[in-house]
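Model: You mentioned two targets. I'll fold them one after the other.
Researcher: Yes, keep them separate.
Model: Target one:
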Amino acid sequence: MALAAGGAAAAAVLAVASSPSVTLLNDDAIPPTAYPWRHRGFFSSYDCAALRRGFQVYREVCASCHSLELIRWRELVGVTHTKEEVQDMCKEVDVIDGPNDQGEMFERPAKLFDRLPSPYANKEAGRAANGGSLPPDLSLMVKARHEGHDYVMALLTGYLEPPAGKVMMEGLYYNPYFPGGGISMPPPLNDEGVEYEDGTIATISQQARDVAQFLNWAAEPEMEERKKNAGLYMFSLFFCALGSGYAKRWRWAPLKTRKLAYVKG
């Protein structure tokens, strides 16, 4: 009887532990909540208003530490801003170019084909400015994490006071969604930390949602074009399948409807 009860208890524990919705005590991070996103549907597109707000949050908050090395100014045209607006933003940024005819490097205003500026001249400068830890580039951050848009949203809104018994090292902040629970990045967002030009109330959750969508676009700017092409391909394949079926039926119908009769001689 005791062995049977013990086996039943062990089976129950195993069933609970194998459930994907249960966070085990030995996990070093809480899995992020699955949030509803407009762009996740098969026929859905990005919310350009949210992308514009997300770029504003990135530029005013995140860009002081994180780069977007894979994004060029021209890619923002028609997505977050008009061409004239992007050109005006380019004029505010100087990039190092050259060498010129005298063999010297020089500074010039950024142009549409330039990459978005990095906050540091090189990786060593980034580490020196952050206590030896280099802030990661955010171009592919959403792709680098499982369900990265949910991860970014949860991380930015998940800063808490450490629970009782949780000792935090100096310079670390408690965030249960970050592996280990200790993150060196202080809470980057504050209510009304930015002033949205469209009048949207800039709560922490709103800013986090907008920048998560913008980073999703940065990691997958071709998503809308890919969905359009996939729709055209599937539409073409449908008619190709109809044509192939009709050709097969037309070719094989006379052969399959024949009746063979054997007559004794």
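Model: Target two:
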Amino acid sequence: MDFSFTNEQKIWRKTVKEFAQKKIKPIVREIDTNKKIPEEIIKDMGKLGLLAPTASKRYGGADLDWTMAAIAAEELGRADISLAIPVLYLVEAAWGFILSKYGTKEIKEKYLPKITEGKAFCGIAVTEPEGGSDILGAGKTKGKEKGKNWIINGEKIFISGIRESSEWGGVHLTLARTDPKAGHKGFSFFAVPIKDNKNIEKTLFEDMGRMGISTGGFTMNNVELPSENLIGEKNRGFYYAMEGFSAARTLIGATCVGAAEGALELGIEHIKNRTAFGRKLGSYEGIQFPLVEHKTNLESVKLLTYKAAWTMDKFYKENKGTHHDIAITAAMTKLRAPVRAFEAMNEVADWLGAIGYTKEYPVEMGIRAVRSYSIGAEGTLNIMRIIIARELLGKEFLPY
């Protein structure tokens, strides 16, 4: 066993960290207030290879492996505690990979080079108004063949990147039921462009956090797509979606670790310098012991996160292991990372006292942002528990 990073990985971390600390960290409050990531940052991320970096080099990606992808996610989270830029990064890294791996040549040539340059957006659209976690039972979006084309009808909601996709162009990988009688084997995946589409109605929500990237939904009314927009094989969409979710969950773990460690670094600086009752705050056991607990918890999450990334690299690079190995480690990462990150940030706010409840310090952005990962993004915590239990006990013990 070797827990060290390679020289290449260390150089990559240094490169991303220097960029993130210099260009992103100073403007995080601006991003949160203006509710938009500056175009200059998007372009710089594209030049550095931070937009859909896991996509093939043939289409503008970097063929980045998952350990390297997790390193970048961690450093972006450390710099942007609001998590807006990390969300943009991880969504495109996870779903850009799926698009690159399973998309048709035509659709990849059309969109991926633009996505990797920051001129188009790649997102995921699975959740529906009546089928958040219960997509299998309640998913109503339907796809029907019409000659060589497809007609899509349905509604997707709580989707990241609606404004970005509407303004930049791009696609959302959208799950639709194409065989109503086949259960989870009756879904297909489609690349749906929503910009300037008269058959798509869009909605925007205002989240409590991650303000720099939009959330919303869209309704498809007889949206006609050419056959090239089908991702992979017909009726295999559920499997592609689950593959992408495992990737996204792993990168969520990394962003949570980075953001929480960034908050702890801020807190440590405060308790080493703040004096109360004639002593530095850091000299009180009531401060030291929680610090130790949170640092240890985050270290355990970091190890789990990089195990998940390592498991994915073993599978995709060496053809070792299975999708089940990836699913359980990614779910465990997603189960623990948001909770541990929230706890650490909340503790730091306590150390800061009254000023921790103001916008003078960035920790409140992190508290608002990281809750999205435990509430629902890429699956609720109880869905993670169901996935882990399924892998431990078998599908016959699923509660549905």
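Researcher: Noted. Anything on target two?
Model: The longest strand covers residues 149-160.
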